[in-house]
Amino acid sequence: MAEKQLRRSLAILPMSTVMALTDLSARQIRYYETQALVHPARNEGNRRRYSLNDVDRLLEVKDGLASGMDFATMRRLYAKTHQVESTQLESKRLSDERARHLLEAEMQQLAGMRPPQSGLQQHL
Amino acid sequence: MAEKQLRRSLAILPMSTVMALTDLSARQIRYYETQALVHPARNEGNRRRYSLNDVDRLLEVKDGLASGMDFATMRRLYAKTHQVESTQLESKRLSDERARHLLEAEMQQLAGMRPPQSGLQQHL
DNA sequence: TCTTTCGTGTCATAAGTTCTGACATGAAAG
DNA sequence: CTTTCATGTCAGAACTTATGACACGAAAGA
């Protein structure tokens, strides 16, 4: 259970990749973070590292904005469906070996287990 | 068909992430590239961007070395089983929308369709 | 045993990437 | 008319990655 959440939450993507994947500007992505809509991990050098969960969330936010939804609403909406958002790969609590294990498992199930909303499932 | 290969080949990971995922040093990863064992894409700034395929390949190389196999052998071995190794996300030939589409599809099937060797499937 | 070749470590220098904070602005809300 | 929003853009600092070079223990060859 806790595993299933960890799988999608390995922080592996840098800002540039997320920008390309979501077609959002760095400014937008960081702003959504100030609005508590995403919580990327940070590497040792303080650089943001996004998880698949984060990318998904950003796409949801993008959709929400497009359909006139406001941040407060989205914030409330997300608060109920998710808890663990991202896990630092460099974390002392998770060995590389274990991290790989989780990443693989996650990729196996990335699709088909999320509610019919927006996000990776619909966009990707 | 060509799609299935593209899915695993989106170049989305920076060196630091690959290092963490494979537990290899940057030096090793670059050296294996000079040995033609991996062919990461490059972003506009000439930074390497690895795909899931690349990470997988690196883990195979790591295994191969551990079991005494030499690069020439691995090179020959890989030459027969793979062609398209990675696709630049920023490529003019692939829109972001499409890239997401492929990434998702790939993640759905990442496991369960590769020969019983080493690599992500076994390690992760 | 002496000499290469291998696979890596480590340094230095240059250049690309990302971070934070600040100023600016058109659009929407009051 | 005045705020508030969501973004753009800039600047300076700090982090990351790139390439090339020198070094070296271990393995392979002569």
From TrEMBL, chains A, B:
Pfam families: MerR_1 (PF13411). InterPro entries: DNA-bd_dom_put_sf (IPR009061), MerR-type_HTH_dom (IPR000551), MerR_fam (IPR047057). SUPFAM superfamilies: Putative DNA-binding domain. Keywords: DNA-binding, Repressor, Transcription, Transcription regulation. One of its GO terms (molecular function) is DNA-binding transcription factor activity. The keyword Repressor applies. It comes from the Bacteria. Residues 12-80 form the HTH merR-type domain. Transmembrane segments: none annotated. This is MerR family transcriptional regulator. It comes from Furfurilactobacillus milii.
